[in-house]
Amino acid sequence: MNSVRSYSMNVRAARAEQTRRRIVAATIELALSRPLAACTLPAIAERAETSVQTILRSFGSRDALFAAAVEAAEGEVVAERTVDPADVAGSLAALVDHYERVGDGMLLLGGQETSEPLASRITAEGKAVHRAWVERLFAPTLASVPGPRRAEAVDLLVAATDLSAWKLWRRDAGRSRAETLARFTALVSAVVARLEAGV
Q: Per residue, what are the HEC states of the chain?
């Protein structure tokens, strides 16, 4: 009897976890496709094919749900963005793939920074994640940069791989993914060459 009860509890726990993940995924999808003010609990419940009551039972509040969604989204970003100092080209390709998947949604969030505190927090954390990615990917180059100039070096590499550059080439100028990647590669190469030359 105990084994039956234990099995039943495990099944319920697994279903509850699946529901939580579905709700978090729905929250992320909505946040990348509409203003955060429109990401209401009813809208999220509809996307996740569940109820508002289930969301509140699982997370307690909208704020707690969004905190979980931000954490999950950051995990996805880290997983998608290859960091291999021995393969900068591959890492840049992974970055462009990431921008292709969520770039427009990230731009949407960025446009709400001044009016939506949650958007401001999300984009601030995203910028920190991007800077950390740059510091890890270009660690060999940065190791040769004198301490006082290191922050400037990181700034240059952050700018050379920033979402705004993807928008400029991909959306504003209508370049292809391949052309966009080539431009990222050229810009990064120029910055790295400058840093390695000590200029």
A: CHHHHHHHHHHHHHHHHHHHHHHHHHHHHHHCCCCHHHCCHHHHHHHHCCCHHHHHHHHCCHHHHHHHHHHHHHHHHHHHCCCCCCCHHHHHHHHHHHHHHHHHHHHHHHCCCCCCHHHHHHHHHHHHHHHHHHHHHCHHHHHCCCHHHHHHHHHHHHHHCCHHHHHHHHHHCCCCHHHHHHHHHHHHHHHHHHHHCCC
